[in-house]
Amino acid sequence: MRALTDSTGLRKGLRNTGDGVVLRSRRVPLRDLWLLWLLAIVLPLFSGGCREANHFYAESPWYGGRTLPDNLRLRRQANPQEVDLSRLAGGTGSNQQIGIGDVLEVQIAAGLHENDQSTTAVRVQSDGSIILPDIGAVLVSGLEPQAAEAMIQSEAVKQDLYRNPTVTVSVKQQKKNRVRVLGAVKNEGTYDLSPNSSDVVSALAAAGGLASNAGQKVEVRNPGGTVMPSEPTPPAVAGNPDSPLIQASAGKTVRPASYTIDLISAARSGEGQYLVEDGGIVMVEKRDPPPIFVQGLVRAPNQYDYPIGKDLRLLDAISLAGGMSNQMADKIFVVRQIEGQTEPVLIQSSWRRAKRSSEANIRLGPGDVISVEQTPGTVFMDVLNIIRFGVTGSTTLF
Length: 398
Description:
Blueprint: E1 2-5, E2 11-17, E3 20-23, H1 30-46, E4 55-57, E5 103-109, E6 117-123, E7 129-132, E8 136-139, H2 145-158, E9 166-173, E10 177-183, E11 189-193, H3 200-206, E12 214-221, E13 226-228, H4 235-239, E14 246-247, E15 253-255, E16 258-262, H5 263-269, E17 281-286, E18 292-296, E19 302-304, H6 314-320, E20 331-336, E21 345-350, H7 351-354, E22 369-372, H8 376-390, E23 395-396
Helix pairs in contact: 1-8
């Protein structure tokens, strides 16, 4: 061991061991501390060098640099659980309306005697009519029982079968649409829906609603397309690309066997009828975003799940990782892979500026890598901590 004397008259001892040089002094010259501090401030200003084309700053620093353009900034996550899905309800009529496949009991009384009364159970045919003895076919689909009674009475009088009969119509068995709901819902399964309320919203409600990992897209698979009566083209056909209706010839519209809707855009427009037929399947998109990775000068570097339907910003990710492990840490890189590009984008931000500006506290996306970088300032703090802890004993510097 050799003794050295510095300008302040302090004596230091350096001992060369197998592990390196060990500092045995309890004091460090103030001049050296100021030199380290000056380097920590000045070096970052000259260490930037030439930036690559894909290197951006979340918030442009005063010494220059390209700011992240708006088209590379992420927007707030859309959450289908926050929209009013009731605007997607079909509104096809009340549950009192007679539908195709319903079983009706029709009672016709021409007098008070039992022989003057007849009771018939009939099923509504695919064309919406029922077949009654002597009277024949009567169109009743879409009518409420009272309206059907008047229709049957009018047809019986028209055919001179009765002068003024009393007609009673009751729905004994209402046909149900069996719809299967799969994907990101709380309770997958097969459910019976009334034909008058057999739409996407009713199917989702029957399945307990959307799950927390539900996406925006819902695919409906009907067993076959439906040709609808001639009527003016609805706005959902003319201006909504998500509409399940398409224009057909002769002024008719056709509901295709399968179609996909965007829950959020469809709910905002409030247009279109998203019906599900008997035997249909409703598939709700599941979101499974890749995790984010936080590394570098944080207390708990690791990968963390990306929250679905919620914003995740830079400071949130640092908090997930336990916060900064170095008091001088400030420089942060976000590495983001852009779809369609081979090279990732490098976004540079600042811990201190992110606490003051939402522009610097950028939104993060699934798969982002957040790296808290070493700088001369963090190195200086590490050395200072080594010196501080070294006063209680020998500490290896290098």
